[in-house]
Amino acid sequence: MALAGQPSGYTHLRPRGVPTVGQLATAAREAATVLGRPALWPPWRRRWQLAPRPARRRAGGRMRVTVVALEPNDFVALPRLGGHGRPAPGTDVLHLAHGHAHTVVSTPDGEMRAVQELGAGRVRVLGEASRHRLINTGADTAVVVRVTGP
Q1: Prediction pTM value
Q2: Low-confidence residues of the chain, pLDDT below 50?
Q3: Of 27, 39, 75, 120, which sits most exposed with the smallest number of CB within 10 A?
């Protein structure tokens, strides 16, 4: 039995802090800085994958750092990172490490709602209301970092 507002003694029941948008953005910027070197770019294209360890080093707590590399005119969806086939709640933060890219927001029936540039040195915070796609609109490989909170 536990009293309201009192610690329970069970470590698995203690409240965990949720990262703020500022912490997610800082982690994305630092990971993008590390991924500025082509030697650390992901080996597979058009697939979200766990960022290399040096890029994840500063993202502590409950943050997940993933990265994607897109060839010119390639695109990739931004699926939620949930378990057991369910969408995960939380916030996605994108940061461009190299190249040029745009995010496209669409409705469930495929109608485009917005196209926004993912500018160099800028962080894009995505909500979970719409479907998002990331498109490489440049002539070089685009490398984008994604940091997701719970």
Answers
A1: 0.83
A2: 83-87, 129
A3: 39
